[in-house]
Amino acid sequence: MTKVNTARNTDTGALWSRTAGDAPVCSVLNQNIEADFVVVGGGLTGTRTALGLAESGAKVVLLEAKSIGWGASGRSGGQCNPIWRATPDDLAKRLGDTQAARLVETTLASADTLFADIEKYSIDCDGEQTGWVQAAHCGSAQTSLEQLAEAWNAAGANISVLDQTETRRATGSEEYDFALFHPRGGHVQPLSLTRGFAHTAIKFGATLFEDSPVQSVTRAGDKWIVKTPNGSVTAGQVILTTNAYSDNLWPKLRQTFLPMVSVALATAPLSDNLRKAILPNAVTISDTRRAIYFARYDRDRRLIFGCVGSTEDAAAFGGVNRLKRGMNKVFPQLGETEIEATWAGSIAVTPEMMPHLHEPEPGILAALGFSGRGIAMTSVMARTLVSKALGASNDSLAFPVTAIKSMPFHAITKAVLPLAAPAMTARDTLDTIFKRR
Ligand SMILES: Cc1cc2nc3c(=O)[nH]c(=O)nc-3n(C[C@H](O)[C@H](O)[C@H](O)COP(=O)(O)OP(=O)(O)OC[C@H]3O[C@@H](n4cnc5c(N)ncnc54)[C@H](O)[C@@H]3O)c2cc1C
Fold first, then answer.
1. Backbone phi, psi, residue 341, to 5°
2. Is the CB–ligand 1 distance for residue 76 below 6 Å?
3. Closest CA relative to residue 391, chosen from 36, 103, 100
4. Ligand 1 center–CA 153 separation, angstroms
5. N or C: at which end does the chain have fewer Cβ atoms within 10 angstroms?
6. Distances (CA, A) of 306 to 14, 281, 319, 327
């Protein structure tokens, strides 16, 4: 008999669990079952992949160690940022012209495809496609943004360049003199979106289990056996979508990225006057700092503000204080506005700041490393995983299939990572002093 997960392992401190749509009702795996596909991880990547596979008629099981959306997906800033930090030319140099062209085409459509998914599956996730302002924190960052816009516009994007007056009008902040405006950008309630994908996957026949951490994946003939503490699933293919929360389940996977932390806070709902002054058109904003400042509204017009942090205890290494100082620097109008929640979560950052798709053995796929661009890009990757799992050839996929490669000096770099956020903030401050235009 299956046991419903009543002791839900959901508490991450993120504001989103207070305002999210209903969680799916999932059991704990306590039997031995069979499926066509097992998806490991119940974030945006896993739930959207399970949805796509189940929609195709396949028998799909998803196993989540905690609860659906417990990882980065339920803690995210929820900004849909539909381009990469690399230019199309950079991608062509790295991947070759043909692969880069496929990725660029998919990327340019990524935001519209996400919002179309939300509509198609009637997912109630407070989605708003009001645009994304990408602001320069110093003069050299302005030059890089100008080049980025030129390169992506040449490839078909529709990015506008905002001068000082337009930037300040769009953001309500005097911190910035220059920005790009990406009209396709937007924002979602990330936990509601993840739960929405999960509900839809269940509707299409997928079975989702929570509190069911996968402990081993072993081959059995032409199938794989995936074991949890109280059960197992035997399946033809296993898809690992554990991102920054990857453990030692698959050799070397967790050495392919650095688990950087992002911290965030939510203010109390802002007064009408503050709302008119700050992000007046409900755009999202993120800037070019190393410790990236980002902000957006939630549906009740709380301001969500975030930056790079140190550990999953948001206050550690001065994380919350840095966050508040950052928010007051960008939006001094907020004064002593009440803070309702602070939280932290881990993102998987790869050396080239792009996600990886691996096929280490026939029947095993792994996709991770969204490097802080997961809201639009997990869906792009999930669709790629679905195509690949259903038999598409590698030369038709948006992402290249690459070998698992450990980052050099991974253990040492990971050990000193908590110190990176204060160091990056110090460098950013120097930039704003010495590199103003
Ligand atoms: C504070 C914060 C702010 C962010 N802001 C933005 C933003 O504004 N815009 C943007 O684009 N991106 C943002 N991101 C990044 C984005 O949220 C992530 O890229 C995205 O959610 C990753 O989704 P995922 O499904 O790949 O991984 P996750 O959501 O992390 O899911 C992985 C899941 O795997 C599970 N798992 C791990 N090991 C096992 C196992 N052995 N067995 C079973 N399950 C397992 C975990 O419990 C977890 O639930 C932010 C991230 C954070 C933390």
1. -155, 150
2. yes
3. 36
4. 30
5. N
6. 12, 19, 10, 8
SS3 105: helix
Q: CA 182 to CA 22: how far, in whole Å?
A: 31
pLDDT tens string, the chain, 437 residues long: the values are 445 554 455 678 899 999 999 999 999 999 999 999 999 999 999 999 999 999 999 999 999 999 999 999 999 999 999 999 999 999 999 999 999 999 999 999 999 999 999 999 999 999 999 999 999 999 889 999 999 999 999 999 999 999 999 999 999 999 999 999 999 999 999 999 999 999 999 999 999 999 999 999 999 999 999 999 999 999 999 999 999 999 999 999 999 999 999 999 999 999 999 999 999 999 999 999 998 999 999 999 999 999 999 999 999 998 999 999 999 999 999 999 999 999 999 999 999 999 999 999 999 999 999 999 999 999 999 999 999 999 999 999 999 999 999 999 999 999 888 888 888 888 888 888 776 65
Choosing from 28, 322, 370 the residue with most ligand 1 atoms within 8 A of its CB, the one to mutate for a pocket test is 370
**Ligand 1 lined by 131 (C-beta under 6 Å):** no
Helix (H) or strand (E) holding 367: strand 364-368
* Distance from the alpha carbon of residue 104 to the mean position of ligand 1, in angstroms: 23
List domains and CATH numbers for the chain: 3-76+191-257+352-406 (3.50.50.60), 132-183+258-349+422-437 (3.30.9.10)
**Element housing 231 (H / E):** strand 231-240
Specify the residue with its C-alpha closest to ligand 1, atom 16. 374
Tokens 């669709």, located at residue: 383
Q: Tell me, using a 6 A CB cutoff, whether residue 238 lines ligand 1.
A: no
